[in-house]
Amino acid sequence: VQLQASGGGLVQAGGSHGLSCTASELTLRPYHMGWFRQAPGQEREFVASVSWHGGITYYADSVKGRFTISRASAKNTVFLQMNSLQPHDTAVYYCAAQLRSGPTRRADDYDYWGQGTLVTVSS
């Protein structure tokens, strides 16, 4: 089972961009979902997560107030809206799913991963 992340591209600093994550062989509704990112030469880091019902969200301090995670269960899709993008947001963004007790921040807690989509923010 693999998730499909899409929407990456080139964005100018200060701009906005949205990512989507879906799965063709998995119903995402019961899963807590997370977005992670990995910049060149750096470790993968937590970005945001949302509970299976959408009522609980967590954000990394570096994106709080700029990024919004949401989900549309009817569309089997999770979104990441990114505003006020900066060059340091440049990374490959991954979505992930897990069934543990909550929308955790730890990458190791997530069982299913997407292939990643590249977001490049130019200055």
Q: Tally the helices.
A: 0
Tell me about the largest β-sheet. 7 strands, mixed
| Residue windows where pLDDT falls under 50 for at least 5 positions | none
Termini separation comes to 37 Å
Query: Based on CA inertia axes, which overall geometry fits?
Result: globular
Arithmetic mean of pLDDT = 95
What is the helix/strand order? EEEEEEEEEEE
Q: What is the β-strand count?
A: 11
Give the % helix: under 10%
Structural class: mainly beta
Determine the oligomeric state from the structure: single chain
- Rg on CA atoms, Å: 13 Å
Portion in strands: over 45%
Overview of the structural elements:
With about 120 residues, the protein is mostly beta strands. Helices cover about 0% and strands about 50% of the residues. It is globular and about 40 Å long.
Please describe the structure with a list of short key phrases separated by commas or semicolons:
4-stranded antiparallel β-sheet, 11 strands, 0% helix
